[in-house]
């Protein structure tokens, strides 16, 4: 299913629109503060933290001392928090605020943007459900598919 959205695409209308979009807000006020590259960087940092969490959980899970159990629990909580942060950024910042039909020249571009964001949301959700770095690979790919819409070429 991810194969249809994992290929590289040319920048969409959202990315081509340029500075005019910078006046829109990232929050629901809107406040007028908007920094797409910072959001993309934060998503990549969240994804890297999720990956590290999974690796650490895997290393700690077989140990039976209290400290290891405590640390594994903390890594699970960290993984959950960063996946949640990604989902919030994708849903509340990107989908609700930035992916608007009028920003796209063609309906197909809009639909492809929706699909890419949905795939990223699903990939982030999957990292909450598993402790398998393959889910991190899918998340990294999904972020890379969404990122060009927010970064100037």
TrEMBL record:
Molecular function per GO: nickel cation binding; superoxide dismutase activity
Signal peptide boundaries: none
InterPro entries reported for this sequence: NiSOD_sf (IPR036502), Superoxide_dismutase_Ni-type (IPR014123)
Cited SUPFAM superfamilies: Nickel-containing superoxide dismutase, NiSOD (SSF109770)
Top-rank taxon, per record: Eukaryota
Xref: Pfam families: Sod_Ni (PF09055)
Protein name: Superoxide dismutase
Organism: Emiliania huxleyi (strain CCMP1516)
Lineage: Eukaryota, Haptista, Haptophyta, Prymnesiophyceae, Isochrysidales
